[in-house]
Each structure stands twice: as structure tokens, then as C-alpha cells.
Amino acid sequence: MLLIEDHAEMAEATAEFMRSKRLEVLIASTGGTGLEMAKAFQPEIVLCDISLPDMTGIEVSRALRAIPEAKDALIAIHTALGENDLRMFEREAGASVNLFLSKPLTPEKLDRILTQLKVLGRSRL
């Protein structure tokens, strides 16, 4: 799993939970770093914040779909924005994002990512 999150405490807490599910987790704090890591890591899951220092999560998701090593990853975007903003981003993202999650990220919300991955038939778990 590739986690792209610029808030260090949130990144570590999320990574810790996902590691408890036996996932290997790499953390990037910017979209650009995340895209470079995706080329080398070939993630099955990408969990990306909507607001990063260098680009939006939507921009990251579109760029990931253009990278052969990440084009089939399950991409989940998380945000602290309200429901109306979330719907706007869902429309803007189109098919580039599989799942939107609101913050705070709880174990139940993170489990939705794993469930969605299994539904898509992409899980190696």
C-alpha cells in the first residue's frame, strides 16, 4: 500500500493500522514523491489525501492511472471536507478514484478499502 499524506501523525497512525492487516506500507508526504514511489513499488492500494503541498489528490489519481505500474491500483482519497465538497470532488475525479473517505480515518473506514479491493478481485491478501 502507498499512503500519500502530508500530516505525519495521521500518516503513521494509518500506516500502523494497515500494517496490522499485514500490508506493506510506504509513506510519501507529497504527490510528486508518491508518484515516483508508485513506479518502483507497484502498489495494490493507494490512499491519498485530497490536499497535498504540491498537488491535489485528484491530480495524483489521474497521474497514477497514467503510470503502468499503478494504473490498476485501488485509489482511495480521504478528506476533511464536508459532504457537498466531497460530492464535487467525486464528480471531478470520475473513474480515476475508486473510493472517497471522510476524515477522521477510523479502522472501519480503512477496512472499507480492503473490502473494496476484494470486491474488485484485486486482492493478494
Structure explained in plain terms:
It is a single chain. The chain has 125 residues and is α/β, with parallel strands linked by helices. The protein has a single domain, classed as Response regulator (Rossmann fold, 3-Layer(aba) Sandwich), CATH 3.40.50.2300. Helix content is 46%, strand content 17%. The protein is built from 5 helices and 5 strands, in the order E-H-E-H-E-H-E-H-E-H. It has a 5-stranded parallel beta sheet with strand order 2-1-3-4-5, sandwiched between helices. Strand 3, helix 3 (57-65) and strand 4 (74-79) form a beta-alpha-beta unit. Helix 2 (31-41) packs parallel to helix 3. It is globular. The model has no long low-confidence stretch (mean pLDDT 86).
In short:
The chain is an alpha/beta fold and 125 residues long. It has helices spanning 8-20, 31-41, 57-65, 83-93, 107-119, and strands at 2-4, 26-28, 45-49, 74-79, 99-102. Helix content is 46%, strand content 17%.
Number of structurally distinct domains: 1
* Helical amount: 40-55%
- The H-level CATH homologous superfamily, spelled out, is Response regulator
Rg for CA atoms: 13 Å
Keyphrases for this structure?
125 residues; alpha/beta; Rossmann fold; five-stranded parallel β-sheet; 5 helices; 17% strand; globular
What does the secondary structure layout of this molecule look like, with pairings?
Blueprint (H helix, E strand, L loop, with lengths): L1 E3 L3 H13 L5 E3 L2 H11 L3 E5 L7 H9 L8 E6 L3 H11 L5 E4 L4 H13 L6
Parallel strand pairs: 1-2, 1-3, 3-4, 4-5
Helix pairs in contact: 2-3
